[in-house]
Design a protein that fits this description.
The chain is an all-alpha fold. The protein has 5 helices and no strands. α1 packs antiparallel against α2 and α2 runs antiparallel to α3.
Length: 132
């Protein structure tokens, strides 16, 4: 079992570097275009040159500038989870859906009654035509 461990580690690093390269936005890739990095990782993955080169030199590991991290207010004011049965907005949406479903059901029932009456009239009409 231990003889397969180096192969599995190389494979894992290869897959990690490949997926990481694919998921990295183009603006965070350094040195070469993203497509070239993918080719390097795939071609030189077995000897670890491609994946190691990607991890060391391919991706910009610093966080993007320009305030992409949450502000201090957002970090200190986390939203509290509210269970659905305690959330008034959710309960109101359920009531609105129930009202809509009830009106739709009433419309269907009225349509069904109308069709049944029409069918009875047709049957009576057919009977009276047959008797004549």
């Amino acid at each position: 079992m231990l003889r397969y461990l180096p192969f599995l580690l190389v494979l894992a690093l290869w897959i990690y570097a490949f997926v990481d390269c694919l998921n990295t936005p183009e603006e965070e890739v350094r040195g070469l275009p993203k497509v070239i990095w993918v080719i390097i990782i795939l071609l030189f993955g077995e000897v670890l040159v491609g994946p190691v080169a990607w991890l060391v030199a391919g991706r910009n590991r610093r966080g993007p500038a320009g305030g992409s991290t949450p502000s201090e207010w957002h970090r200190n004011h986390r939203t509290q989870f509210v269970a659905p049965d305690d959330n008034p907005e959710f309960l109101n949406s359920l009531k609105a859906e129930n009202r809509k479903d009830e009106s739709l059901l009433k419309d269907w029932e009225a349509d069904l009654r109308r069709r049944e009456e029409e069918l009875k009239r047709r049957e009576e009409q057919t009977r009276s035509d047959e008797e004549s």
